[in-house]
Design brief:
Elements: H1 3-7, E1 10-14, H2 21-34, E2 38-41, E3 57-62, H3 71-83, E4 88-92, H4 95-99, H5 103-116, E5 122-126, H6 134-146, E6 151-153, H7 166-176, E7 181-185, H8 191-200, E8 204-207, H9 210-214
Parallel strand pairs: 1-2, 1-8, 2-3, 3-4, 4-5, 5-6, 6-7, 7-8
């Protein structure tokens, strides 16, 4: 895989609470320079100026990072993002509901966001896979598909249980069977890790230290990505 090909798997990410307007602008410019697939930002920074003449998607997070927002709040956040012209929304499920096996509630939560930000906006569902059993991972992926999601995503990168794992990515990819994309996010810092996730079935990667990863060296980014 060439560096340019690898870059097209990456959502170049800035979700630090301390991010300034200048940080956001620099992240967008860096994503354009690196040739990443998308830039992923906090919804509060909208609207943003995207570079002209560059095929770069704009994604924002919803219900981030805890997922413990009411579904109506997540939906409102997603609707606002859609009005601001985002291409993609990455929402966090109610992780406690998934742990308890309340998959109908998880599905309803996802469906509320899907209805608030309909296609062509892409919907990625963050399941915080490190907190879930294999059974729960499968069930939540199935709920995501029923609710109309386009991707399932491993992690926020902010949970102490950890981020993406090859095992979780492979299980998620097997469950969705190519009908949905799979995004590996949280702790993907080296080219070796990135390629392992892709080999396991990831079709997107959430990365903050994209320049270092694409240069094939480890990053020392903030906790979260």
């Amino acid at each position: 895989m060439t560096t340019a090909e690898l870059a097209q798997f990456i959502d170049h990410t800035l979700l630090a609470p301390t991010a300034t307007t200048a940080d956001v602008a620099a992240t967008i410019a860096e994503a354009a320079r690196l040739g990443t697939k998308a830039v992923c930002l906090s919804p509060s920074v909208l609207p943003v100026q995207m570079p002209e003449g560059v095929d770069l998607s704009l994604a924002v997070v919803v219900g981030f990072p805890s997922g413990k927002h009411h579904s109506s709040i997540k939906a409102a956040e997603a609707a606002l993002a859609a009005r601001e012209g985002v291409d993609e929304v990455d929402m966090v499920i109610d992780i406690g509901a998934a742990i308890e096996g309340r998959y109908a509630d998880v599905e309803a939560d996802i469906r509320a966001v899907r209805e608030a930000a309909p296609a062509p906006v892409l919907l990625k569902v963050i399941i915080e896979s490190a907190t879930l059993s294999d059974e729960a991972i499968v069930a939540v992926c199935e709920a995501s598909e029923r609710a109309g999601a386009d991707f399932v995503k491993t992690s926020t990168g902010f949970h102490p249980a950890g981020g993406a794992s090859v095992h979780a990515v492979a299980l998620m990819a097997k469950t969705v069977g190519g009908r949905l994309g799979v995004k590996a996010s949280g702790g993907v810092r080296t080219r070796e890790q990135a390629e392992a996730m892709i080999a396991a079935g990831a079709t997107r990667l959430g990365v903050s230290g994209s320049a270092a990863l694409l240069a094939d060296s480890a990053t020392e980014g903030p906790v979260g990505y």
